[in-house]
Design a protein that fits this description.
transmembrane, transport, ABC transporter involved in vitamin B12 uptake, BtuC, mainly alpha, two-stranded antiparallel ribbon, transmembrane transporter activity, ABC transporter permease
Length: 355
Amino acid sequence: MSHATTDAAPQPAGNANLLLVLLKARTFIALIVVFAFFAFAAPNFLSSANMVIMSKHVALNAFLAIGMTFVIISGGIDLSVGSIVGLCGMVAGWLMLHGIDPGFGWTMHFNTIEICLIVMAVGAFIGAINGFLITKLNVAPFIATLGTLYVCRGAAMLFSDGRTFPNLTGNPEYGSHTFRLIGAGSFLGLPISIWMLIAVAVVAAYISRRTPLGRYIYAVGGNERGAALSGVKVNQIKMFVYMFSGLCAALVGLIISSQLVAAHPATGQTFELNAIAAAVLGGTSMSGGRGRIGGTIVGAFVIGVLSDGLVMMGVSSFWQTVIKGLVIIAAVVVDQAQQKLQARVALQAEAALGK
């Protein structure tokens, strides 16, 4: 009798472990389900032209989501990334069309690489401002980045009094004519923006999994006070994640202005919500301390496939917003269920070892 009881005991634990595996793979499963659904329901969804367009849309969201993942893992939030996208696009447009007048009777013009470096520096600088407000002035991340959202959006409007910078084709004389390749060029059959995403994703994944900096980011999000007592320079870590998030937003601003060959100050509105959604769908915990870059990339694909598929099916933009909101809520609920199940399985394992 005692042997029969012992053999039957692992059954619930085995079921719990199987459910835990399914919950951990939920984002990938969701991507397969969503992709399969639209492959049948949406006309021309699997066409090569649509795949290219969708990959570009996914890349834009993935850039922001990667930066957002670092911020959320550290225990923060960045609501300003959409506005940084718009502002950085306007900075790129201004540099291409007008250059910089230092006030000595001549104007400085820049080539494509210089424009990209300046715009990336602007994005990182805005991220540094967010980090300063949060670490030095003790402003809550939500409030600090919300304020920066409005400041950056207003600054983008001021660049052109709310008008578009058109015809960003560049000038061969200054070396800026290659700017359009960022958004429209391709290499080995893949858009340049996808190669840029791969590079950023590899660097971010390496930082998060293989470097002390990555471990410190997780430590700060998991237990900030404990990390500080262990010698982690918490303020520097927070400064880094917000600067990295601003840098990712600047890249998106460059790509969009290059794709459209124009810059508009309203570009990037609500982009921050898609970035947060992709990170949460990918398993990043809003309470901090947990998340993976790979999961975030898959989450960005889920959001991208869902958005493009709904558009191709002719679903109203209002319903698209409702569906995205429901997806985010479902992701958070499932994440909470996973954490509770993990705790229960851990307790069961400890009890089994105790016996």
